[in-house]
Amino acid sequence: MSRRDRHDARTPIVILSLGIVAVAFFVLPLVALAIRVPWSSLFDALGNDATIEALLLSVITSLITTVLAVIFGVPLAWLLARSNLPGRQTIRGLCTLSMVLPPVVAGVALLASLGRRGVVGQILDDWFGVRLPFTMPAVIVAQLFVAMPFLVLTVESGFARSSMTVEEAARTLGATPWYVFSRVTIPATRPAIVAGAVLTWARALGEFGATITFAGNFPGATRTLPIATYLALETNVDDALLISMLMVILSLIILVALRGRWVGAIGGVR
Amino acid sequence: MRLIARLVLAVSLLAACGPGDGGDDGVVVFAASSLVDVLTDLSADDESAFSGAVLSFASSASLAAQVIDGAPVDLIISADRAQIDELVAAGFGTSEPQVVAQNVLVIAVEEGNPLGIRSLDDLSRSDVLLAVAAPGVPLGEYSEAMLAAANIDVSPVTFEADARAVLAKVILGEVDAGIVYATDAESSDDVELIEIAEGDEVSVEYVALTLLDGSGRAVELLDELLGDRGQQALGRRGFGLP
Amino acid sequence: MTLSVDVRRLVGSLQLDASFAVESGETVAVVGPNGAGKTSLLRMIAGLSAADEGRITWNGTVWDDASSGEFVSPEQRPVSYVFQDHALIPHLNVLNNVAFGVRANGGRRRVARERATRALTDVGSLELADRMPSELSGGESQTVAIARALATDPKLMLFDEPFAALDAGARAQARRLFASMSNESLARILVTHDAVDALTLADRIIALESGSIVQVGTPSELLATPRSHFVAEILGFNPMSGELSGDQLSIGTMILTVGAHEAPDGSVIAIIRPRSVSLHRSRPEGSPRNVWRTSITTVDRTSDRVRVQLGAPLHIAVEVTPAGFEALLTDTGEDLWASVKASEIAVHPA
Predict the structure, then answer these.
(1) What domain count does chain B have?
(2) How far is C54 from chain A (nearest CA, A)?
(3) Phi-psi label, residue C160: left if phi above 0, alpha if psi -120 to 50, beta otherwise
């Protein structure tokens, strides 16, 4: 460390110490996992059809979930941040409740509403012959239910922070409300939308409790990578370690690819 | 500064109050999930050796893994013979494994049995949604074996992680039938139990092993299980006796 | 074309009640202290809020009629609004900002670019075209905001405190630009709390205080007969009409030397701030200043200052510290000397 580094911006010792503890807390389990993994069997695990199937299912469903979350979540965020809708606080609370609920509880709630005997599910079954549980759409529904709040909250914060005066100026210049939304508001909140989408994707990728409760476990249709890991833990711990490592590598790739572009935007710092 | 000192003191006190070692007060028992009701019954009984015991229920594989990792366990009771044999081979056992209980597989259906399911054959009907345990889990292995022995083809809609999860799907009405242990079906008032004629083909045995790292009271526990009190408790909960 | 405003609206705890008209070619200044309701008035004219009672019409077309419920939204009114903080769109460069209005109205990209280029040239800021708003200084972003408002060819322009955030140099330049922009087919309303802006840039002044109009008139009418405390406060700055010739300013029988300025010869408004004038017992020697003999007509004492009204030949108000006044050891009626530096006299074209 040069003299400059040492003296120009001093970090208080307390902060440095606590920060190091926090780093260790996060890094230790990942390092330990990497040590325990039987690396020699990794390629076998990768070649395993069941594992590849679970991997593809996880990636595809989480991507679809993210897209749907953006399509429905951005308007909701806008309503919460900008409209005069009565009861916005309550609506916000309800929409983000699933983020706080234990995932299995969320799964049970989904069964109660969209399951075969569910309030809406029953109608879907009786009238349209549509059954959601144990299908791939059910996986997407479960992921969406628990992960979408991340997008809604992040984007709402983005909308709240973007300048209303600029939007008013655009109106006076002749822009219709939709033109303002698409050409001024959305570009201004793009960082928040990206950050929200990344968080949503990450949460959807790792989603387990709601998925296994609502969508069950069926190879190819609802057996996502987290579920495969859990089951592997029940049968063969080495397999579990390998699949876990796979998920860690996958997540690392995502995070590294998007480095810097989203971490700052969540806090509003560029 | 005083605030920080107080925080440090509080944190260290909390750290000291970890879960108690079995060696100090009670015994530690690892058991397959199906045994949750019967062992809880015993631990509530003041005169039982299991009184005040720390009970841990999980999948057979993770229980075995924890023992290998050095968990201070007195007794392990598993539905997976192979796991027990592995532990013996690795030198963790202090005596021969003993069968303490048995179980049979049954079909669990909704109260009232609306689809009129009578036997394993009915499970392959196209209008029946079936839940079974996943392959690799003891129940899953037993289910598969039994279906194979009876020469029946089924298409389950879901492979659950354990017996209780299969049961939950039946209770919730998400599936029409599930293959579970008799003890699980009996534990719930919301399901009906259909006996399986071919159930005898597959014998589910619970094997107990006293372990090295325990408190030393493991033999007491095993004796009780094999003795009157234990066998009666098991019988009350629907287990077959060895 | 006429903008006719007759509105009432409750803004917080303030009841805004204004009735006036503005013609094409006119520049009207709305002056008043902060919180008087000036911005709320502008927002109603722009269509960003609606009147509780009353109407706003433009050339006979109703823009806002509280009783019938008619309301024309802002994007459909040919009004441009220059906001106090300029409100440039942060992710577009200057040229695209200026072109925004043209595009929003359905203009094609090339046409929009051309009109934007022309607008930027008119305000003298074409070289800024490729910059991003975050890279501009206060004065630069203000000219860009004006160019953007001009590019849509508005018939009515609203300015909300356009010079407030600028430093002295940028302010002078911005005032010049504003003055040069006037044209017959454009009506302009300028909101400001700075009297000098109003006096020098407007054809008519509307004085707004606590939501009500207290006076309407030309700058000279207001100066001659101020009808409210606020308007009188404007006069606290001692604005006076005079004739300028080179660096010689004649006000009544007085001839004063003024410092560097940019007003052309002819009728001007001169401003002498009360604190710029010094009072002396005997004729001051030394540096070239305007010096004259005068007397005190009234004295107004408060704990932290003394306000002295001077008599002939220059009836201006002067502010001194209590200690300074004691040192004069004088009272009403007595002769004393007053001086003010040439550089402390501001002149503006009338």
Answers:
(1) 2
(2) 21
(3) beta
